[in-house]
Amino acid sequence: MASDGESKLLEQCNICIICSKDLSRDTAEQLAATISQHGGEATLVEPGDAVPEVTQFSHLVSHTIDFPAYDTACDALIPVVKPQWVNTSLAKRKLANPRQYSPDPRLFLNDVVVTCGDIPEGDKDAIIGGVVAKGGLYSPRISAMVTHLVDLTTDSDKARLVHARKLPIKVLLPHWFDDCLKLGRRIDERPYTLPDPEILRAGPDVPIRWQENKDLVGASSPEPSKLPSRAKSVHSEDQRSVFHEKCVMLSTDLGIGVHLRESIETVLKQGGATMTTDVNHADMLICRYREGFVYRTASRLNKEVGNLAWLYHLMTFNTYTSPLRRLLHYPISRAGIPGFQDLKISLSNYIGEARIYLENLIAASGAECTKTLKQENTHLITAHGNSEKCSAAREWGLQVVNHLWLEESYAKWRLQPASDPRYSHFPLRTNLGEVAGQTRLDRDVLEHIFFSSEDTVPPSPRRAMQSKDQNTAAMQPPAETKRRIENAAETTHGTPQANGKSRRPSEHKKLQTPARSRLMSEGKENDTPSSTSSRRSKETATARLHDIAPDIALYEKEMKRVGGVIYGGRRKSDEDRVRENHKKRRSVEAQDGSDGEHANEAKRQKKSRPPIAMHLLITGYQKWVGKGNEKKEDADKRHLRDLGIMVVQDARKCTHIAAPSILRTTKFVNALAYGPTIVHTDFITDCLKKDELMDPADFPLVDQASEKKFGFSLAKSTAKAKANKNKLLRGYRIHCVEDIRGGIDAFKSIIEANGGECLPFRGRLGLANQARREESDDEDSDMDDNQPGRNEVFLLSSAGPKHARLWPRFRQLALDIKKTPRIVRVDWLLDMAMSQEPHPPEEYELTEDMVEDVDE
């Protein structure tokens, strides 16, 4: 039993305990009993339930900030703490500082209690200050609460004590704290752990360890293509759905089919949700873009606004997370981040989900993501500084940054300076892909840019659907700017004014006839003021307004600078400088003479290009292969475009393909599925040499040796591809080992180009959900069960020992779902894709007796 002093420690506390997957109901009830025993009041909130009015509570206890009332609690200055806060307060017999127990991920060291060994005093002070600032605690001596000891060797007294007592304390170099604070993220401690830290012994060429990033599961793409398999299972009765008693609205801009929409609604209704088409009644809005009346209304009413990926994440894990927690769980913008449209970004050293996530984030930001690095690139985003791409990028003078630059630019919706040291910091033995996806969206930024109240919204094309009166009111300039515009209009054929006020009939008892001299100045002696002259004055003032608007905007911006405008203006290179419309001025000057008009007309004719006659996919063209030929390749592509040939990289868009011979490249094999016209690369050479569009029929690709080698006819394959219509592998579900030679992405593109489905095989229970998928797959509902591939499951593999270890697991999983397992070489897929006809898998099947003769 608690003593009298302890029993009243929480007497003034009214605590709300929010259950989650990390804080079960049983644990919450025990915690509530402890609070009541010490004089406090406790209220439990089930996952998915609404939190009562937060102002009635003194504290909120939660393992995470992912509950709808978190922002409200912060606004009301109600502390949100972890359950450890209660136990620590009782142990200390006084209420602990809630900041040290905050679940806010921005305080990424909040579970660190550090003590220092034999390190310099200056380093000690810096480390203590940094840890405390990021939510951690400092202890002057070794205690049960200490989690980290920072030291230079294991010979110090504290390090020996930790080793002798076998305490669960990590002994680290000071470099770990330095790297964490520079990045603003908590990274893995292992490379810094004494007595043998990896950062001091590993050479620069030793591969860096990589760990799977769990933060990106279900959050790497803003537009998932399929309903998650786990969402189709009904949750157990003892686990309440995250959609219980929620009202959900699916926006029309999602672009999904009727069948998928019905499937989503079915899952939501099974979870206890209701559907609505009225945003005012909705608790959750699922939309694709940050625009439109529905999006702005829901956001201003503080409703949960997320995209389809966020909805699928809730369905899969049945745990609430805020759509602002992950960047790609929130609707995207059509326009992209200002300043990103001209950027070409390449990635290096990011793999798996982290790479997919960054590729999609680059696309959502409005930039272009290139798979290869060229001198025309502007940025290289890398997970660490050791790679050929990094060396080349630095030689070419490109910006080399980590993913934090991209994430924070997206979160703040503004191009961040690449010169910030945080964006160019790369810890020695850490792959930063491990901490990708931890940046959150800022609601204040979103509100300011995308859904601010109408009285502060600047004129935007999105407001075009409003009424005329609303548009007119929205375009009115500020009072001071308006006064200067009116003064400018008065000096340029404006309506007469008195004392700076416009003349209105209601302000004058009597209308006066303008003076004769003023009428004569207009060149119309016998005319009197009329609605025509008034309208002409307004048009003149409007024109004058448009002319000086850039200068006014620049002046207003300069006035906001520290020190005003007296310290000099903006440079031309400044990214946010308002530029004057020189094109308009040149066009006005060109009207002064007919010579200028003829010059402009000639210039327009010179720039015009012929219509596109063909979309050409090129592979294996030797004149472009090799380092140093990038400029020649770009020049030749522009030349071909001037001849009516558009060079494309996507096999889906090509009408012709050029190759020196029959190749097994990804481009060639993918393009065969679409039945294009195939020509020899001599076609390109002759077109460039003769500067004219040659007839493709004069350059057919003839390669009898390769046809004999691969056992197919190129002409027949093209004809069969047109008949197949990309459905050769329809019904096939083909798995592929992740580290297969050539890369899983290459084989996935080939399979999908022929209508099949490709899935990575990691030795897990990824096959168990196929049976349920097939039951609801309308696309395959008309297929015969005896059709090839229908009752079989395929695994693309090599005959190496590493891959052979996965075979028994694959066979067992296939048999569990009553499928025939087929483990085949990649030649099976390539031969089918190139011949455009099915091949029996038995000829390509791998068995254990083949492994011994193959070296990996």
Overall form: globular
Low-confidence stretches: 1-5, 232-238, 455-535, 563-599, 601-606, 765-783
For the largest beta sheet, what order do the strands appear in spatially?
2-1-3-4
Fill in the CATH topology of the largest domain.
Rossmann fold
Instruction: State the distance separating the first and last CA atoms.
Output: 66 Å
Proportion of residues in helical segments: 25-40%
- Assign the structural class, choosing from mainly alpha, mainly beta, alpha/beta, alpha+beta, or little secondary structure: alpha/beta
The total count of strands amounts to 26
Oligomer: single chain
CATH superfamily of the largest domain: BRCT domain
What tags apply to this protein structure?
single chain, alpha/beta, Rossmann fold, 7 domains, four-stranded parallel β-sheet, disordered N terminus
